[in-house]
Design a protein that fits this description.
The complex is a heterodimer of chains A (429) and B (156). By secondary structure, chain A is an alpha+beta fold. Chain A has 15 helices and 23 strands. The longest helix of chain A is centred in the middle third of the chain and has 14 residues, at 272-285. Classes of the chains: A alpha+beta (429), B alpha+beta (156).
Chain lengths: 429, 156
């Protein structure tokens, strides 16, 4: 196995070049195992937003690749990420999904840890003949942890680019969806819709960030229903002629930036709460940016490998096996607005998303069929060359394309191939 | 021949949705101020602050049915075969013209080579008028509302 790690048998660059992607990358168990090692157990993985842990003692469970982790807010208000594993015999320390705790007690032999990970009590300590130093048996922190605007990321690899280096240009687009809040702060403590699908994890970012091309076909009915209800007319997206909408950013990130596209903005009934919200936006950002924030859709964003922002929510996902993925939809609420604004955001979210929504379930069904389709090995390539002839190289790196182009998919796959080939971090960025 | 009228109403509702007779199902509802609710994560969440799987007022309920009838729902191609068993029916008179009913259900769906099992409790509020019942609200507590679930692209 070790030699296989050093010398990849598979030429990943050849499998993603020339505007096409090979089918094996969606179905091959060996590829999937390597993704865990080379991607999920190396790069920065999105875990949660700090607003999901408002109080000291609040905790939640997450997973990085195959590895269970525990995110805890301490008495000092710091948020820490630990491997969710008792230092004694490796039992899963905390099996509740989320909650609030004073300390974490392993049910197996009752070793107990403080919120900051310190071992409080190994139980029947006299049996250790003074050779067990409590300080040596704190919970193991995940090697690297950092945050951007409250979004908490972690990496189980001790080395690699910093989070800021990893995010690069995508922070500009994260800022845009955060700035819809008049305080700049979002609230993700809004519950989570959980879904499973029978398909490879990479189908999700591919599908989530290319709604312009498939939208007119699989979402037409829901989009028309949506525009009848809200006045938001998305038909201009079908026109295919708006440049610089589809962005590929260095680091495998993808963006659909609609700010240059003309869309009839949603007509909303003006209420005192909504007026107060618009006034607060203007007070914080000035007239021009406030107008833009309230009249256009913030860009859709994919932060490699597992964070997606779309319209109403932050979506994260977790590969389970080569052909199974779990998806989590967290509605994005705003801090500093009246309750009715956030209530409307929740109802807007449920219209489109989650297992019973009117938009994303059609995507999920398509992805499951996609997974079946790529089992057919004749002409074993997916075509992602749309817009190859008109792609624009951007000054800071990355590319820009027209509304329905696939330059962002090509960018993501090239980044993927570099990681899978084990190229050094400095080459990757 | 004599099934309790409340039980008979729930059985009929179950049959209509299992057989995808959505328009007929709508006639079982009051025509305004209704709520069709499937909470997410917990049974008792505050829907103004926490997301639900379904939180349909009457307009959204009509949209849900309109979409199911449109032929555009990919997870309804082919249409799933569905049968549910409704049991443990416990009605309670809440007001002179209002009955609150708890019932349990087990639903089996089959489609595209997969059979799925859904289970939970339904809480109906039924208005009684001239001897007939109309649904004011239906809250469905899924056993697995806090788990990763498959698509729910049918009526539950």
């Amino acid at each position: 196995m070790a030699t296989q790690m050093q010398q990849p048998l598979i030429d990943y660059h050849a499998l993603v070049s020339g505007g096409r992607v090979h089918g094996s990358l969606y179905r091959d168990e060996q590829v999937y195992e390597r993704e865990l090692d080379q991607i999920w157990h190396k790069v920065w993985v999105y875990l949660c937003h700090e607003s999901e842990l408002p109080k000291p003692g609040d905790f939640l469970r997450r997973q990085i690749g195959t590895q269970p982790v525990l995110v805890v807010r301490g008495d000092d208000n710091a948020i820490r990420v630990f491997f969710n594993r008792c230092r004694h015999r490796g039992n899963l320390l905390c099996n509740r999904e989320h909650g609030n705790a004073d300390s974490f007690r392993c049910p197996y032999h009752a070793w107990t840890y403080a919120k900051d990970g310190a071992l409080l009590e190994p139980t029947f300590e006299e049996g250790y003949d003074n050779n067990l130093s409590r300080a040596d048996f704190s919970l193991t922190p995940v090697p690297r942890q950092d945050a951007y605007r409250g979004l908490i990321f972690a990496s189980v690899s001790p080395t690699g680019p910093s989070l800021r280096e990893h995010l690069g240009q995508v922070t500009e687009f994260i800022d845009l969806f955060m700035d819809v809040s008049p305080t700049g702060d979002i609230d993700l403590n809004s519950g989570v819709q959980k879904l499973r699908y029978h398909g490879n994890w990479k189908l999700l970012p591919e599908n989530s960030l290319e709604g312009d091309y498939h939208g007119p076909f699989i979402h037409r009915f829901a989009f028309e229903m949506h525009s009848r209800r809200t006045g938001l007319n998305m038909s201009s997206l079908y026109e295919n002629q708006v440049p610089d909408v589809i962005r590929s950013l260095p680091g495998g990130h993808m963006v659909e930036d609609y700010r240059g596209a003309s869309m009839t903005p949603p007509q909303r009934v003006m209420t005192p709460a909504r007026q107060a919200y618009l006034d607060a936006l203007e007070a914080r950002y000035g007239k021009e940016k406030a107008r833009q924030l309230s009249s256009t859709t913030p860009p859709l964003v994919f932060v490699f490998p597992n964070l997606i922002y779309i319209m109403t929510h932050i979506r994260r996902f977790q590969p389970i096996r080569v052909n199974e993925t779990h998806v989590y939809y967290h509605p994005l609420l705003l801090k500093g607005v009246a309750a009715e604004i956030n209530e409307a955001r929740l109802r807007e979210h449920e219209f489109g998303f989650g297992p019973a929504g009117f938009i994303s379930p059609d995507d999920i069904e398509i992805m499951e069929r996609n997974q079946i389709g790529v089992q057919a090995r004749g002409n074993d390539w997916q075509h992602i060359a749309r817009g190859l002839h008109r792609v624009r190289e951007m000054p800071g790196g990355g590319t820009a394309g027209y509304t329905m182009d696939e330059n962002h998919l090509r960018g993501m796959w090239q980044h993927y191939a570099r990681l899978m080939s084990g190229e050094s971090d400095s080459d990757v960025h | 021949m004599s099934v309790d009228p409340v039980a008979a109403f729930l059985y009929r509702e179950a049959r209509l949705i299992d057989e995808h007779r959505y328009q007929e199902w709508l006639t079982l509802w009051e025509s305004s101020d209704t709520l069709y609710w499937v909470p997410c994560n917990d049974d008792d969440i505050d829907p103004r602050r926490q997301v639900s799987i379904i939180y349909d007022d009457h307009d959204r309920l009509l949209q849900r049915v309109e979409r199911l009838l449109s032929g555009s729902v990919l997870a309804q191609q082919p249409v799933p075969k569905m049968r549910r068993v409704v049991s443990n029916i416990e009605p309670e008179q809440e007001a002179p013209d209002l009955i609150a009913v708890r019932s349990n259900f087990i639903l089996i769906t089959a489609r595209a080579g997969r059979q799925e099992l859904w289970a939970g409790q339904a809480l109906h509020r039924l208005r009684v008028r001239d001897g007939s019942h109309r649904i004011v609200s239906k809250k469905v507590l899924l056993n697995n509302s806090d788990q990763e679930i498959p698509l729910l692209q049918f009526l539950i």
